[in-house]
Specification:
With 199 residues, this protein is α/β, with parallel strands linked by helices. It has six helices and eight strands. Strands 1, 6, 7 and 8 form a four-stranded antiparallel β-sheet that branches. Helix 6 links the parallel strand 3 and strand 4. Helix 3 crosses helix 4. 19% of the residues are buried.
Length: 199
């Protein structure tokens, strides 16, 4: 259907229900492509769990706090956080945990870890496919480990015509980068980028 933005290409590549990288597999560990800090040592999650309890106490122990994790992977970080947060049973008992996960495959891995026979007791856990305003109705604690580096991004290149969005297109049965035929309106370009060199 023609060129698409890098952001659209990344979204399809990551989340397509049949072929998307995150939507169809567990990408972590020996069977995957990368490992994150929670998978290497439980101390990472334990430190964050203790920090969350302290942050909650520093805010006067607000009632009905919500803990949200963006892109929770296998649920390892959240398992370590909740296990450690048990040092403050009143925090854990009143806590609403929401995991923001678009991948049904990873939601199942997380549910098995957090709700399975050895799962974490004491917190109400639910899932949402995306973060939205419904999560801002009470005290919010947000955790996002290695999440933003996998978000779809828009890319722009300075050219003689001005700033043009980088696109992905097919050429001779290969995917290649191309530039949008129309430059971004000059009013949309930050002032400190107007004089950037081409390329």
């Amino acid at each position: 259907q023609g060129p698409m933005s890098v952001a659209q290409f990344m979204t399809i590549s990551l989340l397509d229900p049949q072929h998307g990288y995150y939507a169809t597999r567990d990408p972590l560990g020996a069977g995957g492509d990368f490992t994150t800090a929670p998978e290497i040592s439980q101390m990472f999650g334990e430190m964050i769990g203790l920090w969350l309890v302290q942050a909650w106490a520093d805010q006067g122990c607000p009632k009905h706090p919500r803990l949200v994790e963006l892109g929770p992977g296998r649920g390892t970080l959240m398992a370590d956080i909740l296990r450690t947060a048990a040092v403050a049973p009143e925090f854990l008992a009143d806590l609403d945990v929401v995991l923001i996960e678009a991948s049904p495959a990873l939601q199942q891995v997380q549910a098995d870890k957090l709700r399975g026979p050895n799962g974490i007791i004491g917190a109400d856990i639910s899932w949402q496919a995306q973060f939205d305003d419904s999560l801002a109705d009470r005290p919010l604690f947000l955790v996002a480990n290695e999440f933003f580096d996998a978000l779809p991004v828009r890319q722009y290149v300075k050219t003689e015509r001005g700033w043009c969005e980088r696109m992905v297109t097919a050429l001779n049965d290969e995917l290649v980068f191309a530039l949008a035929p129309v430059a971004v309106p000059r009013a949309a370009v930050p002032a400190d980028r107007e004089q950037a060199p081409d390329g």
